[in-house]
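Format notes (please read before filing issues)

Several people have asked whether sequences and structure tokens are stored in separate files. They are not. Every record keeps both together, in the order shown below: the sequence lines, then the token lines. Line labels are part of the format and must not be stripped during preprocessing.
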Amino acid sequence: MLLKSLFDRGAAFFGLVVLSPILLIVAILIRVNMPGGPIIFKQRRVGQYGRLFTMYKFRSMTVSHSGSSISVKGERRITPLGAVLRCYKLDELPELWNVLIGDMSFVGPRPDVPGYADKLEGNDRRILQLKPGITGPASLKYRNEEELLAEQDDPQRYNDEVLFPDKVRINIEYLDNWSFGYDIKIIIYTVFGKNL
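Then the structure lines:
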């Protein structure tokens, strides 16, 4: 895991430097097209060993909204610019800072809001040994999660009863079969939009 940590911090620093022009452009677009709110969205998430940390993303929603923990494609709280940012995952670029400071990894379970970690029981709680990631095997499987939720009559229930348990299963498999090479494979598949 030392190699994973060294790679995370080095690659995150490199990414922030190389992508700084894109980060600046996105920040300007948010300021111009979504005035009256912050450029960066900050939210408390559950990290490694259950510790809370602040995750950073580009804001993609209106300032005032319901605050639901799940997002559904086409919902009104997502702005037109926000929809584009989310489509190309540009809203997640500030998470590179989370990786650089050690709160997150490039690969791991997506960080949940407080409450979902409390649902983990028995063997499933081993997931908390992992740092949350920008991408991971569950993220690849459910890269179209917002579209999938939009097709459901009750998106929150579908998330809680179908998606969440399946993500837990996938992430336990990732933990039990982790290798640095597997991480690199997941990153490459994420960049090129492929499924495992």
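For reference, the curators noted about this record: The helical segments are 2-18, 20-33, 80-87, 95-100, 137-141, 145-150, 155-176, 180-191. The chain has eight helices and four strands.
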